[in-house]
Amino acid sequence: MSASSRDALWPARLHHLRRDSEEPAALARFYGKLLGDALVPLPGGDWLVCGRGRRLVVGKGAKAAVPWYALQVAGAAQLAGYRRGLQALGLACEPSPSPLFGEEAFAITDPDGRRVVFGLPRAPEAAGGKPGPSARLQHFVCASTQPEAMLAFYRDRLGLVESDRVLEGEQLSAFFLRSDPEHHSFAAFRAPASRPDHHCYETSSWNDIRDWADRLGGLRIPLWWGPGRHGPGNNLFFMIEDPEGHKVEFSAELERMPKDLAHRTWPHEPHTLNLWGSAWMRS
Fold first, then answer.
1. Between the chain's N and C termini, which has fewer beta carbons within 10 Å?
2. pTM
3. CB 68 within 8 Å of CB 140
C-alpha cells in the first residue's frame, strides 16, 4: 500500500465486534451483567449489548467465534477514499455484515477468513447501559497459525501501523498494530490454531482497574490473569473468561504513539507479556 493509501485509514477506532455462540441469548445476558449494559434484540435472533463507548453483537454460530469486527473511520469522505485505495490494490470489498453501520460500510476478509468491517454508525448513539465504571471497547486480538501473512496483510494491504513485534529467534511470535495514536487496535499471536484470542475494554486509570475488579468480585466472576503490566503497550491489565472460554481484558493507560514512530522488537518470553510476573504464552 502506498503512503497516501496507508494514510487513508488513519484515524480509525474499534467500534464493535460480533461474538457467536450456540446460546446467544444466554451469552448476551452474561455480558449485560458483566458490563452493566443494556440488551437490545436485533433481527434474526441476534442481540446488541451496548453501554458507554462499547457495543457487542451476539448471534447464533460456532462457540466462542468472532467472525467479524468493525472499525469506525472519521467520516464519509475518508471511508470512500479508503475503499478506492483498497480496490486499487485488487482487494474485494464485500457487503458489510454489521447491523450497526450504514449502507456505505464494507468488509475485507483477512488471511484467516475473518472479516474486517469499515464504516460509520447508522445514527447518533445513546449512551445506553446503567451508571458504572467506564470502559471503552478498544482492541481485538486473534491467534493465528500464520502471523507473517497476517502482518503483511494488515500492515501492507490494509494500512495499519506496526507498533511492536515479538520474536522467538527469527520467528515472528506476535505483532501489534495501531490505526490511531493508541498502541494497538488489532494484534495477533502465533498459536497452534487460528482462533479469537481476546477483546479489550480500555479504562482511564489504575483506580478504574480496581473498581472493575471489585465489581467482578461482587459478581463472583474470578480474574483469570493479572493484574499485571504488558511490555508492548505498557498498559495495566487483567483478564477474565466468559462462559465459553473467550478472554476479556480490562486495561488502563495504554501507550499512545505518533503515526511515524517506528516499531520496536521484544523477545518471546514471559516478561514481555507481563512485566510484573507470569504470562499467558500462546505458543
1. C
2. 0.95
3. no
* Distance in angstroms (rounded) separating the CA atoms of residues 93 and 201: 28
Amino acid (1-letter code) at residue 212: W
Cα 60 from Cα 69, distance rounded (Å)? 16
Residues 142 and 248 in one domain: yes
Task: State which residues form the domain around 142.
Answer: 136-273
State whether 192 and 253 are in the same domain: yes
Which residues lie closer than 8 Å to 218 by C-beta, 6 or more apart?
none
Grid cell in block for residue 46: 441476534
**In sequence order, what are the beta bridge partners of 139?**
200
Q: What angle do CA 210, 140, 220 make, to 5 degrees?
A: 35
DSSP tag of 190: E
Mark whether 250 and 163 lie in a shared domain.
Answer: yes
Cell of 78: 475518508
Same domain, 253 and 151: yes
Which candidate, 153, 171, 78, places its Cα nearest to that of 113?
153
Task: Summarize pLDDT for 116-156 with one digit per residue, the tens.
Answer: 999 999 976 544 445 557 999 999 999 999 999 999 999 99
- Point out the domain boundary residue: 86, 119, 152: 119
Residue 24 is placed in which grid cell? 446467544
User: How many angstroms from the chain centroid is the CA of residue 117?
Assistant: 12
Number of domains in the chain: 2
Give 238-272 pLDDT, tens digit per residue: 999 999 999 999 999 999 999 999 999 999 999 99
* Separation of alpha carbons 255 and 163, rounded Å: 10
Q: Any idea how long the chain is?
A: 283
Strand order in the sheet with 38-41: 38-41, 47-51, 54-60, 12-21, 68-73, 115-119, 106-109, 94-95
| 196 grid coordinates | 479469537
